[in-house]
Amino acid sequence: MENRPTLADVAAHAGVSKSLVSLVMRGEPGASAETRRRVLDAAGALGYHPDSRARLLRSGRSRLLGVVFGIQHAFHADLVTALYSAARETGYELALSAVTPGRDEAEATAGLLQDRCEALIMLGPQTPAAGLARLAARLPVVVLARGVRDESVDVIRTADAEGLHQAVDHLAVLGHRRIVHIDGGRAPGAAERRRGYRAAMNAQGIGRHIRIIPGGLTEEDGAIAAREIGGDTTAVTVFNDRCATGVLDVLARRGDKVPGDVSVVGYDDSHLARLAHVDLTTIAQDTAVMSRLAVQRAIDRIDGAPVAQRAVVVPPHLVVRGTTGPPRA
Amino acid sequence: MENRPTLADVAAHAGVSKSLVSLVMRGEPGASAETRRRVLDAAGALGYHPDSRARLLRSGRSRLLGVVFGIQHAFHADLVTALYSAARETGYELALSAVTPGRDEAEATAGLLQDRCEALIMLGPQTPAAGLARLAARLPVVVLARGVRDESVDVIRTADAEGLHQAVDHLAVLGHRRIVHIDGGRAPGAAERRRGYRAAMNAQGIGRHIRIIPGGLTEEDGAIAAREIGGDTTAVTVFNDRCATGVLDVLARRGDKVPGDVSVVGYDDSHLARLAHVDLTTIAQDTAVMSRLAVQRAIDRIDGAPVAQRAVVVPPHLVVRGTTGPPRA
DNA sequence: TTGAAAGCGCTAACAT
DNA sequence: ATGTTAGCGCTTTCAA
Are strands A281-284 and A317-319 parallel, antiparallel or unpaired? Predict the structure, then answer.
C-alpha cells in the first residue's frame, strides 16, 4: 500500500506539463493526439487515479448532493433507491448521512456540511422549520415527503389529503360506511392525512362515522391501535403500510377475516405492501417522480435557475390489492 | 448564498492566526483558554464549518471508513446504527454507500474508492471472494456478517451454526421432536445455519426428523415456505426474523396458534422480533460487539497494527420471547 | 502560546 | 498545442 501516483508523476513520466495531463485526464480538448496517447499510457503504467478531493477543492465545487434519511424507515429506503437513479446522469453524486437512534438530524446534517455538499435533500425531516430555514441560509435545502411552510426551503411532497380522499372514496364505493382512520400522530404528513380523511368522510355524507384512533409509524403502533377497532367497523385506513401490517396481524390473530370482516388500506405502497402474503391495498407515493423532482430542484437551485413554485405536490394514486372488498352483507 | 466562511475568515474575525484556529477547531492542545473562546465565538458567529476536503488533502489522509450496505436489509440498518456508535470516538468518519436494486456492489464500492476511504467495511457482500481479494489489494477490507475464506480480507461474523444449535436445543428441551428448518437459500450464513441445524438435531438424537424447507430472506419467502409445513410439525427454526414474520403470518391466517400448535424461532433479533405483537423468540447477533470489532479491525489495519486472527467469530445468544413453548400434549 | 510560510494534488488563468 | 504560475482551504513545519 505505497503512495499513490500524482498528476505530477504522470507528467514527468510522459515528459509533458501537468496542464496537459490535467486536460487529457478530463477529456477536454486542447492536446494533440500524440500527447494524449503518451499521457494515457503513462497514467495506465503508473496506475494513476485522479484525487477527487484535490480536484474539487481547486475547482471550488464538490458536485455532491447531501441526503439525510432515516435508516429505520422502509419508505426512505425506497426514496434513496430512487434518488440514486435520479442522480445518475446529472454529474452529481449522492452523499448519504443516516439518522439513527443514536445520531440525530443535526449530526447527520453537520457531516454533510463538512463534506461541502452543494445542496441538501432531507427525507421527512423532524427538524423544526426554523432550523431548516437556518440551514437554507447556507445552501439549498429540498425537503422530501414532508410539508414545510417556511419560504426558504423547497418542498417535494405527496398530496397526502388527496391520498386519503382516494382511500375513503374507494371504500365508500365498495359500500363501507363505518370507516375508521388510524393516524400517524405527529409524524410528517399525519395531520394532512387526518384532514383528508375527515373531508372525504364528510364529502361522502358519512361524517357522523368519523373516528380517528391514535396510531403511529410502526407495526407496534398499528397493533395497539387495532385493538381499539370496534366490532361494527367494516373498514380501516391506516397512516402507513408499516403500521397497517401491525393492524393486519392483530386482525388475523383475533380471527377477523380481511377483507371479509374488515377492509384495510395502507399508505406508501412500500415493499411491504407488495408482498404476496400481505397484498395490501394502499396509496402509492410516486418515489421515482418525487426523487427526480428533488434532484432536479436541488440542481436548479445550485445553478441559480429560476424556480416557478417552491413547493411541488405530486398526486398519489390508489393501488387496489387484496385487503379491500365489499362489507359483509 | 454567499461564499462559505473559511478558516482565514474566522482567524481575521477573531484576530488570531490561522494556525490557532486550526488547532482550536481540531480540539488540539496549544491554545490559551481565552484564544479558544474567541475562536469558537467567531466560528459560531460566522457559521464556520471546516472543509473536510482541504483538511484531508493537506493531511494526506481521509480518515474515512467506507461502509457498503444493502438499503433494503433491516439487519444492515441495525449494523449501520451500531457502526456509527462504534466509530464515534475513533477519529474516523463513516462514508455510507448503499446497494440498491439499481446500484450494485461494484458501483457502491467504486464511489468509496474515489473518496479515498482508508478502509472498507462491507455488510454481507455478494461479491465473490476473488473480487474481494482484488479490493483488499488496494485497501483493508473488513467483511461483516458473512464468512469469506480468502486470506486477504478480515471477517467479523456470528457463529451461525452455534446459533442454530441453541435454537434447536431450546426447542428440544421444551419437548419438541419434529423440528423443521426453513433455510436462507444462498444467502450469506445460510449454509452454516443449515449445518448447525443438522448437527444439533443429530446431537439431540432426533436426526430422523431433520427436514429443511427452502426459504429465503424475505417475508414472502417465509410465507411460501410456511405452506409446506406439515400438520405433525411442532416447531420451526427460520433463517431470519424477516422470513419468520412471513411464517407467523401464514400460521395466523390458517388458524394455527403460536406457540400452542407451532413454536417458531427466528434469527437476528432485529427490530421486527422485538415488536410486542410479534414477540419472536430469536437468535441475537450482537450488532454492538460486531460493529465495534469491525471498526477496530479496520483501524488496526490502517495503522498497520499486528492482528492475531484474521477472522473473529462472535457467539450469538438465544432470546426467548413468546413464540416458543412446549408442544401440545 | 502564537504566527509565518510552505505545501497537499489539482485546475484555471495566463503566457508562449 | 503546450508550459508557467497561482492559488483552492487547510495542516504542518518551524521560528518567535
Answer: antiparallel
